[in-house]
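Hey, sorry to bother you again with one of my protein questions. A protein chain has come my way and I'm curious about its shape. I'm sending you its amino acid sequence along with the backbone structure tokens. I owe you a coffee for this, so here goes:
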Amino acid sequence: MELQPAISQFLDQLKFEKKFSNHTLIAYQNDLSQFHTYLNIEYQISDLAQIKHLFVRSWIAQFLEKDMSPRSVNRKLSTLKSFFKYAMREHWIILDPMAKIQGPKVGKKLPVFIEEKNMQHLLDDVDMNPEEALIIQLFYFTGIRLAELISLKVNAIDFYRHQIKVLGKRNKERIIPITAELATSIKNYLEIKQISQAAVHPLFLTVKGKPLYPRYVYDIVKRNLNLVSTLQKRSPHVLRHTFATHLLNAGADLNAIKELLGHANLAATQVYTHNSIERLKSVYKNKHPRA
């Protein structure tokens, strides 16, 4: 089997069967295209069956030599693992060249978050226009992702039950409860914009009636977080981290937080426990008489 048609078929499977997002598909395509080009140039290989684990190692080595982060290298390896796993299922190859490949170790990176008092200051004291205020509230009160906020439709908001329906990664739907405060903010926003609660279009639209683009939302969040935080990273995802950390600090069940965030497994949610442990250490150090 030639490598290029194999890659094309694999990407089609991700797009039409797995329903991967365009962003993820582009990342897979770029990784596999780089790998294909490398094999052509370095080893003059275009046949899938000729690929050995040593070729994969040499491809990865060049990225490490250029100081690419272990996390980015492992993402590329994940792409290759998925591709060759698919190739094995299709019986294009007999041996998986990824079987002997181990990725570089990645140090644990704790998610950064905004302190509770700073979030209260932002929500209660900072003068924002209705759109900006609602965007900040949605991120902090629900923990949704940037793409989920942009695609959130008006008719996905249930004001009677105080909940919203979110379309997450791989088109998985989940229900997130909302506070009375957030429900009121959304209603007020709809009234200002003269939007019906039954509208089927996204909640936030540009002046041309198009969904907001990620950079626009990112800039709103960054500009407002600048007023209350000195964190180097001030993005929508920081508000998602803040949502999860504040819930955990208040005693919320980890499995419940997992469901609210739309994580596929508990391991992704457990990273927030590290922040809570650090907070407990700080309390212990500052309050215990012999600490």
Notes: The two ends are 66 Å apart (CA to CA). The mean pLDDT is 91. DSSP finds twelve helices and three strands in the chain.
